[in-house]
Amino acid sequence: MAHNGKHALVTGSSRGIGRGIALKLAEQGVKVAIHYRSNETAAKDTLAKVRQRGSDGFTVQADVCRPDDIIRMFNRLKSEFGALDIFVSNARPEVPEFYRGPMDITLDQWDTALDSQAKAFLVAVRAACPLMGEGGRIVAITYAPGGRTGSWQAWVGMGAAKSAMESLCRYFAVALAKRAITVNAISPGWIDDSVLNSLPDVVQDMVRDWHVGDKGWTPMGRLGTPADIGNAVALLCSADAGWITGQTIAVDGGLSLMDAGLPLEIQRG
């Protein structure tokens, strides 16, 4: 499933899930633009790992909350690559910039969440499309439970923002279908080296204990890894996935199959 000669942009790829995606694409011969907002050192480290895998690329700085920055990023991509085959929208703000419940979240925090996801995706896809030929691939990294539930109160801003981005995927999928450009969302389960690692230590420990092992809530008994999400993105970017579009796909080790209304002992058998 090699993608030799193709070009990709992965936002938020200096670390975590975005890095896992960039490295998987690099293994398949894709040249990757590594986007970062503030951690240039981490972005350069990702680029070095891309080169270790026999591919190449460049780093590009942008604040995806700022439409002008997004346009500048794509202008840079055009000058470096000339064309774009794969766009992965993965960037998000740091947790303190949006992490507060519905009764307390400030309007600035709310705007940061929505601007970094739905608005950024809208601006970026419209900037990406002129660089894409037929058969392009667009993938949004989301978190579908945040749009269906209300239990993780401090996630309200990002939950709303990710839901709006998933909706945009469906609209863009229809709009771009005649060009054979697919637009899909991937909803990861709990992933090590991701937003989880930015939560308080006690919360991290509770989440790991809740999902890992034979009695964990995730049927496969482990947390996911950035490489797991990279594998899923690579599948959606393959020629064989050209008939899949407008979908939100759970990549979560079976977590979304579980029923919160039943004790785990009954569900796990």
Task: Describe this protein with a few key phrases.
7-stranded parallel beta sheet; about 270 residues; globular; 9 helices; Rossmann fold; 7 strands; alpha/beta
Q: Explain this structure to me?
A:
This protein has 269 residues and is an alpha/beta fold. The protein has a single domain (7-198, 224-262), classed as NAD(P)-binding Rossmann-like Domain (Rossmann fold), CATH 3.40.50. It has 9 helices and 7 strands. Strands 3-2-1-4-5-6-7 form a 7-stranded parallel beta sheet, sandwiched between helices. It is 42% helix and 13% strand. The chain has helices at residues 16-27, 40-52, 67-81, 107-128, 145-148, 156-176, 201-211, 226-236, 264-268, and strands at residues 7-10, 31-36, 57-61, 86-89, 137-141, 182-188, 248-251. The termini are far apart.
